[in-house]
Design brief:
single chain, two-stranded antiparallel sheet, 16 helices, 2 strands, 74% helix, globular, transmembrane helix
Length: 322
Amino acid sequence: MLRIEYAYWLIAALLAYTGLRNLRERHGWRAAFWLLLGALFGGGDYVLAQQAAGNPLPAQIAGVSVIVLALLAPRLHRQAHADGGDAQARLQSALRLGHKLFVPALLIPLVTLLVALFGAYLSIAGHALFAKAQMTLTGLALACVVALLAAARVARVPVRQGIAEGRRLLDAIGWAALLPLLLAALGEVFTHSGVGAAIAALASNNLPTGSALACLLVFALGMVLFTVIMGNAFAAFPVMMAGIGLPLLIHQHGANPAILGSMGMLCGYCGTLLTPMAADYNLVPAALLELRNPYGVIRAQVWSAVSIFIVTFLMMWMLVFR
């Protein structure tokens, strides 16, 4: 059975490779960061098993390791590698391959979707091929492996070159590669720590709750602000919906939940355009394009974010209370 743990082990292997290559090149801090992170990915199952057995020491070591990662992160500066290839040669290769370059990228969502839809029906000798609880994530991991093999086939290069390019990208992005993981955890912490209830209390005490327009404006701006803080509108949504959306807009002013939810998420996406915390969208492209300013993508998106927010809020005001 294919389990998500196999994907974690593959990630651990890539991180270990990145760390060892940096160690060979005498980049000590960078090597320590990636090797430690790889150990955390590879040893996660062991830590959980020991904790379930009543041995808290591995979990405590893992916690200290996370603190060490935070201390190492400021020492990871953006790094370009001499083995990244000649820019003119890469351009000529891209022109030669043309639209074939999109094949590996499109395989990732396609294979993931196929596994999510049909993975439950696949079995070998009566044993399910995918674990139902983690089928989508396992499918995504499998899709990434398939895409790597397809990219090597399309470009007619060995698979190890794709792994080397992955290492180069990790070094270019640095600690920001961890932001999606950290922000997912932050959203969960915000939800369970009662931030939504605290926002509801603040809104009740300080907002003119009798004004539907004021409540809607605070909800929309709050979606932008919390998305900027957490880098993810999905993490901001339950906080703002629990604090203002449900108690004030839906229950008190009769807002349409479907319109409020969908357009509120669009307001949150405006915050995604403005924050470096959304590393996947704003920092990774800057590293891939080798921009001089790592925040160049954000600067280019500011006015788009502002204009989209204004139009979205006006449409929400006209539609949500009908």
